[in-house]
Amino acid sequence: MSRFVTLPDPTAPVRVVQVGAGGMGRAWLRLLGESADVELAGVVDLNPQAAREALAELGLHDVPVGTSLTELASAVDAQAVVNVTVPAAHHPVNVEAHFLGLPVLCEKPAAPTVAEALSLAAVAEATGQLLMISQSRRYFRTLSAFKGQGARLGEIGLLTCDFFKAPHFGGFREEMEHVLLVDMAIHAFDAARYLLGQNPVSVYCEEFNPGWSWYAGDAAATAVFEMEGGTRFVYTGSWCADGLETSWNGSWRMNGVHGSAVWDGAAAPASELVAGLVAGAGAVMDDGGLLGSASSPPVSVVAEGPEEIAGALAEFVRSLRTGEVPSGEIHANVLSLAMVEAAVKSSQTGQRVLIGDVLDEAHRQALAVEPIPAAREILAGWASPLGALERAGRSGWAASTTVG
Question: pTM for the full model?
Answer without folding.
Answer: 0.88
